[in-house]
Amino acid sequence: IVLPAVTACGADSKPQLTVSAAASLTTAFTNYGKQFTAADARFSFAGSDELAAQIEQGVKPDVYAAANTKLPDELFEKGLVEQPTVFAGNELVLAVPADSDAVSSLDDLTKDGVTIAIGQEDVPVGSYTRTVLEKLPADRREAIMANVRSEEPDVAGITGKLTQGAVDAGFLYISDVRATDGRLKEIALPDDLRPQVAYGVAVVKGAKQPEAARAFIGGLLNGAGAEALQAAGFEPPPPQ
Questions:
Q1: pTM here?
Q2: I need a surface site. Which of 70, 117, 219, 234 has the fewest CB within 10 A?
Q3: Which pLDDT score is estimated for 2?
Q4: CB distance 62 to 207 below 8 Å
């Protein structure tokens, strides 16, 4: 009877680190969390904008990781997080079901009957997508937007629509495509259209585990976290 009590006490003595992170980080962070020894990492994955709004409303995770730098910078300016760090890059691609030939290029998105899922305007993946579309001639951009059937709150929603066959194509990060184990395939965007995708992370002010939070961020830059990001298809942090 004594032994389980001691074991439970030992497990409970490990601090719990709460991480709010962009949905596109699910695979990389989950794998990193299994190797992170400074604390028991617990994750909340959702749209970066939704998680930022929660912090503004008083929710205090230890770490906030977004799929852009804009949201962490805004929280920093409001005094809600410590100085953000850019920790990863990614590539926006056109994603299609692996067994579909309906779409093979950006031009195909303008065709009648093609259906598309994109991120909502305030979500990083939706903002990056609109950056791409803004570079197109107005008639092509309007034709593509006319084929949009769904605007999702995070990349998980876009991935779901694609893997369920609800749409023909969607804009995702290359890491999201790789996380589907072959159910989706990516089509690279032309170099002149490709946006720079940079991920920012910060310790939340008032966090219960600030030291563990800093250790977690340190591992994203050099260590198990950086390795997990690379394995999931992320790129090194782009120069700012």
A1: 0.91
A2: 70
A3: 44
A4: yes
